[in-house]
C-alpha cells in the first residue's frame, strides 16, 4: 500500500513541475528543451504556413507539462489497466475483516442481468476477490474472515440510485440545510452539489436499510444547468468528510492527476421547473448560449494545443480556460455524464437537437414521462441512445408528467433503451428504490432488467460499472443479502456491506447485540422465486395507441355474467371488524360459481345449473372476490394535476393566515370537500382499476418540499366512489360529510412566518368548547365533533403535540359530557404514545404507511426491520389502537393493497388474522365515520381477482380475458389468510343457491378485459331485526386467541380467552345464577354477553359482570325478568363502551335505568326496550335527547308510551305564542302527569337512526310527524298495531322518500288507498310492506305496490276487498317478489294465483290460509304442516307454501290447466283430481 501511494505522489509531481526543482530534474528538462528547440526550428523552416516565424523558438520551461495536458484532453475517461489488477480498494479501512459468503444465489448484474450464479463470494480489502467457486488459495491468503452462510438466499450488488438529493435536501428538512437549487440564474455549471452536502442527513442509514449503497447526488431542477453532481457511497467514512464519500472523485475536485481520468457528472433540466427564468425558448437559448461560450473556449484550447504540439511556442501565452465554463468544456470533450431532467417530447427533442448541435452525449434522461412515446427520437441523440431514469407509478402530478405510464419501462426496454428506476429522494424515500423495480416488474418489465435497473444499468450509465452495480472480481465490495427474491414485495436486506464493511445489521455502539429479526415467515422456497405477474400486453398496446392517455372509464355491463372457478367470496363486516366469508371452497376441486343478472348476484355456490340461458363466462381460475379497498389522505378527486391550479379546487381561505371574506360569514371558513369533488380523474380511475373502489378526501394538505403549508382548519371530508362518472350518478357520493379535519404542527421549515403550535391548540380548544355560535358552520361542526357526532381527524405527526391534544380531548369531554371520536392522521411519532393513545380510544391513520422523517415533527420515526424490530403499526396494535393506513399523494392511492401487504409482512407475523382483516377492510371507514348502510344505494364494492386474491402480486385488480402465464406460486401464508378467510363460514353460505337480491353487483367492461365490482345490499327482513350477533356455528372467531362460547359456560382454561358468551337456549342441566356470577368473575375480556336463555339472572350477576368486563360492548338480557333497575344502573355506572343493549321483556325495569342508559352510553348504536309495562315517556324522552348515535331503536308493546314520548314538530316560537288570540282552543285537561309534559323540542336530528319499532304503541299522527322530522333517514319503520294512525301519518312517512325500505302497518285500519298511492310513489325503494288487516284498502293500493321495482315482501292478510285484478298486477309488474301473504283474502281465485306463480318464478313463500279457492282438491298436498296447536277447522284452512313446495304447486296447477284445455278440446267434462296424473279419466 505504501509503494502504491508513493508512485501516485511521484506521478503527480511530474505533472506539476515547480520552478524550484532539484538540479537533476532541471538538467533533464534542459536537455529535453534543447531537443525541442532543434525540432521546432526544423519544422518552422519547412512549414509553408509559418515561414515568417523565427528560426529558433523560445520553448517555455513547462513545455512538457503543456504537452502532457494537451494529450490528456484526448484521453477517454475510464479505468486504467492497473485498476483491474488492484489488490486493495482506495476506500479500504484498515482493520476490516474479510467476509466469505457461502451457499448464495448470486445476481451478478452481468449478461444484461441474466447471469445468476449459485456459489460463494469472497470480499477482502474492500474488493470482491472472487464470485462463484472461490479458489482455496484465496481463502488461505485471507488472514481473518467472517463466514456468512446465506442458506440459499439471494445476493445482489448494492443498489445504485441514479437520482437523489441526499445530503442537499436532508432529513429532516431544515432551512439551514436546504441546498437544493440556486436562485442565481438558469445556467450554473460551476456550482457543485458536494459543496452543500450534509453528512448528517438521517436518510443515509434509512437508504442503506433498503439495500442502497451508492447514489448520485444531483442539484435541483430549477436551473437549466444546475451544477455538477457526484456519485457517493452512503457509508460514512472515518474521515467524516463529504469528499471522502465520493466514488472516483474527479481531479477537478481533488486537484490530483490520478492514473486515469474519472468521469464527471452534471445536472441539466428543461421544462416547467424553469418557469422562474422564462419560457422554454428562453431556457433553451440560455443553454445554447452557455454551450457556445464553452465551445469558444474549447476551440481556443484546441488551437493552443495544436500550436504547442506543432512547436509554435512564441506568443503561445497562457492555456485558455475559464473556471466558469470548464465543466461545459469537458462536456464537449465527452468527459461528463449528463443527467438531464426532461419530461415531454418537446423538451426531449430540444435536448436531442442540442446534443447534435454541439456534439456531446447525454448519459440519461430523468423523469422522462413521454420518453416511451418517442423512442426513435431518443435514438437520434449524439453519441448514442441515453438511458431513461424514471418512476414506476408516480405520474400525473403536473402537466408534463400527465402522460407518464406504468408500462413505460417495458416499452423502452422493447426498444433496446436502457431503463433505470430511481427515487428522486426524498420525493420517494431512497430506501424503497427496490420497490420501484418491483412495480416495474409487476407491470411486465422482465425480471433481469428490473433488477438491472437498480444495479448494473445505473452503474454503467454513471461510468462506474468497473466499481459498483456488479458482483465480479475486482469490483467494490458492495453486497446485499435479501430475505427473499429481491422482486418479491417487501423484500428486506438481511445484511449489507459497503466497501466490505458491514452496515446492516447496524453495528451496535454498546456491547449488547441488536438482534433485529428480518424475514420471519419467508422460509418457504416460494419466497425465493421470481414472483409471477399479470400479462399486460393489451393494456400496454392500448396505452401506446392512445398516446399515453388510454380511456380509463369502464362500460357498465347489464347482461348475465357467470363467474366460474371461484375459490372464495368475502364481504366487509364493519360491525365485526373484518370480513365474512359468503362462500368458501372446501378445496381446489370444489370451486364455486357466481351468476350476475341485471346488476344482481342471483346465485352463489357450488352449482348454479338451474340458471339456464346465454351468459358471458368469466373464469377466475381459482381466484376470489373480496371487498374493494378504501383510500384516504390524498387529494384524490380534488384535483387532476397537483401542479396545475386550474385543474383543482384552488387555495381555500385559511382563517389563521388572512381575513376571511365577509360573504362567507364564518370565522373559520369551513368548507366541504364535496363541493370541490371531481369525478373521472385519471388517478381516481387508475385506483378503481386497482381495486380501490372508495375514497375519502378532504382539503387538508400536509406541507411538502415545495413550501406548501397545511391549512389549519381543513374543512369536511367526503367519501365517494372512485369509478363513477359524476356526483349525480347513483352511489357516487357515499357520504357527503365524513369527518371534520384540522392540521396541527410546527411551521414549515421553508416558510418564515407560521402560526405557533400553542396558538393552533388554543384555537382548537376554544372551538371545541363551543365559543363559536352554532348558527355558523364553524361553530356547528366543531360542536358536532366535540359531541362525537362526527370524527375529528387531526393531521399531526409530533408526539408532544399529540400529548397536548389528548389533554384537550379530556378537557372537552369533561366539560360537555361527551365522547369525542378523535383520530390522529399522519402520526409519524404516535408509537411513542401508543399506550396513552390506546387508553384514550383515539384512532390513528398512519400516513405514510412506510415512514420517513421529512420534517422535524416526524424525526422520531420507527423505521422497522432491518433497523428496528417494531413498526409503528405493530406497536399501536399491541396497545389496542384502531389503526389504518393512508397515503399523501393521489398517484399513491392505486397501491393501497401493496401498502397493506407490505405492512403485514414487515410485522414478522405479529399481526393477528383479525387485525389483518380490520386493517385491510374496516378500520379506515370506521375511523372516518363512513357508515355502511347510510343509504340503501350505497354500494360497498367487491372486486374479482383472477387466479388468486387481493394480496397476490400476480393478479390484476380486475378480470382479464384470455390471460396466459398467470399461474404463479401459492400465496404466502399471511396473504393466504387474507384472501381465503378462515374466520368462519356461516352455514347458509354453503347453500348452492342464494336468494336473489342479497347482493348487488355492478359489472363493467374495460379495455382488454372485464371488471366485476360487487355491491353488498343488506336485506331488511324481520328476522334480521331480531338478530344481533354474526354468529358462526363452529364458534370460530376473527381473533386467533379469543373464542366464543355458545350455550354453555366457559371452562377454567377458557376463562381468560372468552370474548363472546352466548346463552340463548335453556339446556339441561340449567345454568344457575350462581354459576354465571362465578364465571363472570373469571372472564375479564368479555365483549358480548347474551343471557336470553338464562331467565333466572339477577342483579348480583350483573354487578359482577360490570365490575369485571371492562370492555363490554353488547349485552342481551331479553326475558330476564328477575333483573331490576339495580343491575342495569350498575352497568351504566362503570362507563363501559356499550354499543348495543337489549332489555326486551325485563318487566321490572322503570324509567331511572333507561334514562341512565341514554345519558351515559355515548356509543350506543342499538337499544331494544320492548314489552316493558312500566316504561313511560319520561325516560324515552331522554333517549331521544341524549342517544344521538342510535341506529336501531325498539319500543314495541310499551303500553304507557304516548305522543309526549317522541319529538315534536312544534317550534319554540310557536310555544311562546301559545294561547294567543286566534289560536285553536286548548285540548282537554290532561288526566295524568305524563300528559302534562311539554312537547319534546330537540335542536339536533337523529341522522343515524335507521330502524324504529313502535309496534302497538298508543301514538297518533302527531308523533309520527315529529319522528319523521327528527329522523329523516329511517329505513325500517314498524308501526303494526298503532291503531290510532290515519292517512296523515302516511303523509309524514312519505317524506322519508328513497330512504324507506321496510314499512309495517298491520292493523292500522284507518288508512285508505289515496294515502297508499302517495306513499308508494314517494318511497319508491320500498322492499317490504305489511298492510295486513287494513280493511279499507282495495286493488288500487296493490297496483301501486306492484310498481315498486324492488318489492320483495308483501303482506295483504285480511285485506278482504282485493280481487284477482290485484294479483294480476303483481304477476305483471312485481319482478322481485319473493314472499306474499294472502291469507283470508276470500275473493281471490286459484287461476289468478296460478298466473302469479307462472310469471313470478322467484316467489319463495306464499300464504293463502282461509282462501276458499285453495280448498280445491289436491292443493293441500303442497302446504306445510299446520302447527299442532291448531284445531280441526284451522287445520283445514291452513295453506302455507315455501321453497320447493311453491314450485310443486305451480307444476300441479300447470298440469290441471293442461287437463282443462285437453278436456275442452275433446268436448268432455273436466274433473279436478288430486294426483299428478295428466289423463282425463
Question: What does this 3D model show about the protein?
Answer:
The chain is an alpha/beta fold and 1481 residues long. 27% of the residues lie in helices and 17% in strands. The chain is built from 41 helices and 51 strands. The strands form 6 sheets. The chain has a 15-stranded mixed β-sheet. Strand 45 (1276-1278), helix 35 (1287-1293) and strand 46 (1302-1304) form a beta-alpha-beta unit. The longest helix is centred in the N-terminal third of the chain and has 31 residues, at 280-310.
Provide the spatial order of strands within the biggest beta sheet.
37-38-39-40-41-42-43-44-45-46-47-48-49-50-51
Mean pLDDT: 85
Unreliable stretches, pLDDT < 50, 5 or more residues?
A: 1-53, 934-939, 954-1040, 1211-1223
How many angstroms separate the termini? 119 Å
How much of the sequence is in beta strands? 15-25%
Task: Describe the secondary structure blueprint for this structure.
Layout: H1 2-15, H2 23-46, H3 63-72, H4 81-84, E1 98-107, H5 110-113, E2 116-124, E3 127-132, H6 136-141, E4 145-149, E5 154-157, E6 159-164, H7 203-208, E7 212-217, E8 225-233, H8 251-254, E9 264-269, H9 280-310, H10 326-332, E10 336-342, H11 345-358, E11 364-367, H12 375-378, E12 387-390, H13 408-414, E13 419-421, H14 433-442, H15 447-452, H16 456-461, E14 479-482, E15 493-498, E16 501-504, H17 537-545, E17 555-557, E18 561-573, E19 578-584, E20 592-597, E21 600-605, E22 616-627, E23 629-632, H18 682-689, E24 692-697, E25 713-716, E26 718-721, E27 733-735, E28 740-743, H19 757-769, H20 777-786, E29 792-796, H21 799-816, E30 822-826, H22 834-839, E31 843-846, H23 872-878, E32 883-885, H24 896-906, H25 913-927, E33 940-945, E34 959-960, H26 973-979, E35 999-1006, E36 1009-1016, H27 1022-1025, E37 1043-1046, E38 1058-1062, H28 1073-1081, E39 1088-1090, H29 1099-1108, E40 1114-1116, H30 1125-1133, E41 1140-1142, H31 1151-1160, E42 1166-1168, H32 1177-1186, E43 1192-1194, H33 1212-1216, E44 1251-1253, H34 1261-1270, E45 1276-1278, H35 1287-1293, ...
Parallel strand pairs: 1-4, 1-5, 6-7, 9-10, 10-11, 11-12, 12-13, 18-22, 23-24, 28-29, 29-30, 30-31, 31-32, 37-38, 38-39, 39-40, 40-41, 41-42, 42-43, 43-44, 44-45, 45-46, 46-47, 47-48, 48-49, 49-50
Antiparallel strand pairs: 1-2, 2-3, 5-14, 7-8, 8-9, 14-15, 15-16, 17-35, 18-19, 18-20, 20-21, 21-35, 22-33, 24-26, 25-28, 26-27, 33-36, 34-36, 35-36, 50-51
Helix pairs in contact: 3-9, 9-10, 9-11, 19-21, 28-29, 29-30, 30-31, 31-32, 34-35, 35-36, 36-37, 37-38, 38-39, 39-41
Amino acid at each position: 500500500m505504501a509503494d502504491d501511494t508513493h508512485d501516485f505522489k511521484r506521478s503527480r509531481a511530474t505533472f506539476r513541475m515547480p520552478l524550484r526543482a532539484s538540479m537533476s530534474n532541471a538538467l533533464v528538462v534542459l536537455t529535453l528543451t534543447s531537443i525541442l528547440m532543434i525540432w521546432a526550428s526544423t519544422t518552422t523552416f519547412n512549414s509553408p504556413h509559418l515561414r515568417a516565424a523565427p528560426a529558433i523558438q523560445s520553448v517555455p520551461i513547462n513545455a512538457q507539462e503543456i504537452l502532457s495536458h494537451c494529450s490528456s484532453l484526448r484521453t477517454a475517461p475510464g479505468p486504467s489497466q492497473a485498476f483491474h489488477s488492484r489488490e486493495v480498494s482506495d476506500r479500504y479501512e484498515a482493520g476490516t475483516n474479510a467476509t466469505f459468503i457461502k451457499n448464495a444465489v448470486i445476481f451478478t448484474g452481468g449478461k444484461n442481468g441474466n447471469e445468476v450464479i449459485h456459489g460463494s463470494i469472497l470480499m477482502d480489502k474492500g474488493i470482491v476477490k472472487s464470485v462463484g467457486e472461490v479458489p482455496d488459495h484465496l481463502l488461505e491468503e485471507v488472514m481473518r474472515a467472517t463466514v456468512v452462510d446465506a442458506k440459499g438466499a439471494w445476493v445482489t450488488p448494492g443498489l445504485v440510485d441514479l437520482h437523489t438529493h441526499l445530503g442537499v435536501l436532508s432529513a429532516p428538512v431544515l432551512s439551514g440545510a436546504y441546498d437544493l437549487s440556486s436562485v442565481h440564474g438558469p445556467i450554473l455549471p460551476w456550482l457543485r452539489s458536494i459543496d452543500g452536502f450534509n453528512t448528517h442527513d438521517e436518510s443515509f442509514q434509512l437508504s442503506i436499510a433498503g439495500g442502497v449503497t451508492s447514489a448520485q447526488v444531483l442539484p435541483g431542477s430549477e436551473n437549466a444547468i444546475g451544477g455538477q453532481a457526484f456519485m457517493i457511497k452512503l457509508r460514512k467514512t472515518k474521515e467524516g468528510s463529504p469528499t471522502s464519500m465520493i466514488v472516483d472523485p474527479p481531479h477537478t475536485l481533488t486537484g490530483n492527476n490520478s492514473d486515469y481520468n474519472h468521469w464527471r457528472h452534471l445536472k441539466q433540466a428543461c421544462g416547467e421547473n424553469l418557469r422562474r427564468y422564462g419560457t422554454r425558448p428562453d431556457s433553451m437559448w440560455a443553454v445554447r448560449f452557455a454551450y457556445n461560450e464553452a465551445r469558444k473556449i474549447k476551440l481556443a484550447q484546441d488551437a493552443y494545443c495544436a500550436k504547442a504540439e506543432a512547436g509554435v511556442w512564441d506568443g503561445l501565452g497562457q492555456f485558455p480556460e475559464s473556471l466558469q465554463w470548464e465543466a461545459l468544456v469537458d462536456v464537449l470533450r465527452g468527459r461528463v455524464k449528463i443527467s438531464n431532467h426532461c419530461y415531454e417530447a418537446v423538451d426531449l427533442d430540444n435536448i436531442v437537437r442540442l446534443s447534435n448541435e454541439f456534439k456531446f452525449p447525454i448519459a440519461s434522461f430523468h423523469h422522462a414521462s413521454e420518453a416511451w412515446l418517442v423512442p426513435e427520437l431518443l435514438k437520434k441523440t449524439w453519441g448514442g441512445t441515453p438511458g431513461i431514469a424514471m418512476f414506476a407509478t408516480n405520474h400525473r402530478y403536473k402537466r408534463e408528467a400527465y402522460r407518464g405510464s406504468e408500462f413505460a419501462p417495458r416499452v423502452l426496454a422493447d426498444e433496446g433503451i436502457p431503463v433505470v428506476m430511481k427515487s428522486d429522494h426524498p420525493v420517494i424515500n431512497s430506501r424503497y428504490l427496490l420497490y420501484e423495480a418491483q412495480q416495474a416488474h409487476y407491470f411486465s418489465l422482465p425480471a433481469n432488467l428490473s433488477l438491472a435497473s437498480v444495479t448494473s444499468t445505473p452503474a454503467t450509465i454513471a461510468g462506474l460499472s468497473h466499481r459498483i452495480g456488479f458482483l465480479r472480481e475486482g469490483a467494490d465490495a458492495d453486497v446485499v443479502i435479501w430475505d427473499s427474491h429481491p422482486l418479491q414485495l417487501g423484500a428486506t436486506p438481511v445484511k449489507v456491506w459497503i466497501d466490505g464493511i458491514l452496515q446492516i445489521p447496524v453495528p451496535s455502539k454498546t456491547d449488547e447485540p441488536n438482534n433485529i429479526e428480518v424475514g420471519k415467515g419467508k422460509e418457504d422456497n416460494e419466497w425465493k422465486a421470481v414472483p409471477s405477474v399479470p400479462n399486460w400486453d393489451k393494456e400496454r398496446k392500448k396505452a401506446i395507441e392512445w398516446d399515453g392517455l388510454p380511456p380509463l372509464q369502464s362500460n357498465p355491463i347489464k347482461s348475465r355474467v357467470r363467474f366460474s372457478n371461484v375459490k372464495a367470496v368475502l364481504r366487509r363486516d364493519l360491525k365485526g371488524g373484518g370480513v365474512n366469508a359468503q362462500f368458501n371452497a372446501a378445496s381446489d376441486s370444489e370451486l364455486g360459481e357466481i351468476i350476475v343478472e341485471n346488476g344482481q348476484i342471483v346465485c352463489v355456490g357450488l352449482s348454479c345449473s338451474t340458471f339456464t340461458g346465454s351468459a358471458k363466462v368469466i373464469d377466475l381460475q381459482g381466484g376470489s372476490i373480496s371487498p374493494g379497498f378504501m383510500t384516504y389522505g390524498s387529494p384524490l378527486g380534488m384535483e387532476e394535476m397537483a401542479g396545475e391550479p386550474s385543474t383543482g379546487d384552488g387555495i381555500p381561505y385559511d382563517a389563521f393566515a388572512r381575513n376571511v371574506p365577509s360573504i362567507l360569514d364564518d370565522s373559520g371558513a369551513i368548507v366541504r370537500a364535496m363541493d370541490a369533488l371531481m369525478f373521472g380523474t385519471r388517478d381516481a380511475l387508475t385506483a378503481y382499476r386497482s381495486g380501490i373502489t372508495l375514497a375519502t378526501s378532504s382539503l387538508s394538505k400536509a406541507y411538502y418540499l415545495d413550501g406548501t403549508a397545511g391549512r389549519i382548519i381543513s374543512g369536511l371530508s367526503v367519501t365517494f366512489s372512485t369509478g363513477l362518472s359524476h356526483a349525480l350518478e347513483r352511489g357516487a357520493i357515499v357520504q357527503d360529510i365524513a369527518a371534520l379535519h384540522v392540521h396541527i404542527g410546527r411551521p414549515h421549515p421553508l416558510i418564515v412566518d407560521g402560526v405557533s403550535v400553542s396558538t393552533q391548540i388554543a384555537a382548537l380548544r376554544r372551538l371545541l368548547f363551543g365559543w363559536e355560535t352554532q348558527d355558523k358552520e364553524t361553530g356547528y361542526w366543531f360542536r358536532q365533533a366535540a359531541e362525537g357526532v362526527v370524527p375529528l381527524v387531526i393531521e399531526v405527526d409530533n408526539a408532544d403535540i399529540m400529548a397536548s391534544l389528548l389533554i384537550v380531548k379530556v378537557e372537552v369531554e369533561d366539560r360537555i359530557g361527551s365522547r369525542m371520536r378523535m383520530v390522529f392522521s399522519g402520526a409519524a411519532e404516535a408509537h411513542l404514545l401508543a399506550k396513552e393513545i390506546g387508553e384514550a380510544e383515539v384512532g390513528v391513520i398512519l400516513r405514510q404507511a412506510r415512514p420517513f422523517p421529512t420534517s422535524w415533527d416526524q424525526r422520531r420515526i420507527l423505521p422497522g426491520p432491518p433497523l428496528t424490530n417494531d413498526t409503528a403499526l405493530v406497536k399501536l396494535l399491541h396497545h389496542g389502537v384502531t389503526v389504518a393506513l393512508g397515503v399523501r399523494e393521489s398517484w399513491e392511492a392505486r397501491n393501497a393493497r401493496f401498502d397493506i401487504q407490505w405492512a403485514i409482512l414487515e410485522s414478522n407475523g405479529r399481526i393477528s388474522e383479525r387485525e389483518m382483516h380490520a386493517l385491510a377492510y374496516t378500520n379506515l371507514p370506521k375511523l372516518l365515520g363512513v357508515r355502511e348502510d347510510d343509504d340503501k344505494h350505497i354500494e360497498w364494492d367487491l372486486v374479482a381477482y383472477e387466479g388468486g386474491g387481493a394480496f397476490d402480486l400476480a393478479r390484476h385488480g380486475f378480470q382479464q380475458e384470455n390471460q396466459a402465464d398467470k399461474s404463479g406460486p401459492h400465496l404466502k401464508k399471511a396473504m393466504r389468510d387474507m384472501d381465503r378467510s378462515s374466520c368462519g363460514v356461516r352455514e347458509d353460505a354453503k347453500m348452492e343457491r342464494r336468494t336473489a337480491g342479497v347482493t348487488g353487483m355492478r359489472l363493467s367492461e374495460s379495455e382488454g378485459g372485464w371488471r366485476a365490482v360487487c355491491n353488498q345490499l343488506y336485506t331488511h327482513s324481520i328476522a334480521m331485526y331480531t338478530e344481533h350477533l354474526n354468529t358462526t356455528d363452529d364458534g370460530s372467531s376473527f381473533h386467533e386467541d379469543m373464542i366464543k362460547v355458545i350455550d354453555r359456560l366457559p371452562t377454567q382454561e377458557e376463562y381468560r380467552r372468552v370474548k363472546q358468551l352466548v346463552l340463548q337456549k335453556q339446556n339441561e342441566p340449567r345454568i344457575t345464577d350462581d354459576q354465571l356470577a362465578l364465571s363472570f368473575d373469571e372472564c375479564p375480556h368479555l365483549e358480548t354477553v347474551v343471557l336470553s336463555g338464562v331467565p333466572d339472572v339477577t342483579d348480583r350477576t350483573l354487578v359482577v359482570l360490570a365490575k369485571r368486563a371492562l370492555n363490554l360492548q353488547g349485552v342481551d338480557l331479553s326475558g330476564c325478568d328477575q333483573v331490576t333497575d339495580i343491575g342495569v344502573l350498575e352497568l351504566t355506572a362503570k362507563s363501559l363502551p356499550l354499543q348495543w343493549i337489549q332489555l326486551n321483556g325485563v318487566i321490572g325495569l322503570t324509567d331511572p335505568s333507561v334514562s341512565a342508559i341514554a345519558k351515559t352510553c355515548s356509543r350506543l348504536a342499538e337499544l331494544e326496550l320492548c314489552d316493558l309495562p312500566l316504561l313511560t315517556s319520561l325516560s324515552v324522552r331522554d333517549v331521544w335527547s341524549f342517544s344521538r348515535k342510535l341506529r336501531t331503536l325498539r319500543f314495541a308493546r310499551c303500553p304507557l308510551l304516548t305522543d309526549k314520548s317522541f319529538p315534536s314538530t312544534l317550534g319554540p316560537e310557536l310555544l311562546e305564542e301559545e294561547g294567543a288570540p286566534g289560536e285553536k282552543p286548548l285540548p282537554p285537561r290532561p288526566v295524568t302527569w305524563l300528559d302534562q309534559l311539554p312537547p319534546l323540542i330537540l335542536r339536533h336530528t337523529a341522522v343515524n337512526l335507521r330502524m324504529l319499532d313502535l309496534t302497538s304503541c298508543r301514538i297518533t299522527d302527531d308523533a309520527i310527524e315529529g319522528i319523521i322530522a327528527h329522523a329523516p333517514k329511517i329505513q325500517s319503520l314498524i308501526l303494526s298495531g298503532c291503531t290510532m294512525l290515519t292517512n296523515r301519518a302516511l303523509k309524514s312517512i312519505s317524506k322519508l322518500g328513497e330512504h324507506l325500505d321496510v314499512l309495517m302497518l298491520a292493523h292500522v285500519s284507518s288508512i285508505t288507498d289515496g294515502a297508499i298511492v302517495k306513499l308508494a310513489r314517494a318511497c319508491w325503494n320500498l322492499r317490504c310492506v305489511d298492510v295486513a288487516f287494513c280493511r279499507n284498502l282495495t286493488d288500487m293500493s296493490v297496483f301501486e305496490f306492484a310498481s315498486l321495482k324492488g318489492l320483495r315482501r308483501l303482506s295483504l292478510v285480511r285485506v278482504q276487498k282485493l280481487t284477482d285484478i290485484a294479483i294480476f298486477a303483481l304477476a305483471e309488474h312485481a319482478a322481485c317478489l319473493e314472499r306474499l301473504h294472502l291469507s283470508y283474502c276470500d275473493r281471490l281465485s286459484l287461476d289468478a294465483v296460478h298466473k302469479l306463480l307462472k310469471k313470478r318464478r322467484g316467489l319463495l313463500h306464499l300464504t293463502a290460509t282461509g282462501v276458499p279457492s285453495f280448498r280445491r282438491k289436491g292443493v293441500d298436498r303442497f302446504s306445510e304442516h299446520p302447527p299442532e296447536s291448531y284445531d280441526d277447522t284451522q287445520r283445514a284452512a291452513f295453506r302455507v307454501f315455501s321453497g320447493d313446495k311453491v314450485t310443486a304447486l305451480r307444476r300441479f296447477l300447470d298440469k290441471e290447466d293442461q287437463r282443462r284445455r285437453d278436456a275442452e278440446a275433446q268436448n268432455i267434462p273436466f274433473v279436478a283430481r288430486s294426483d299428478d296424473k295428466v289423463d282425463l279419466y
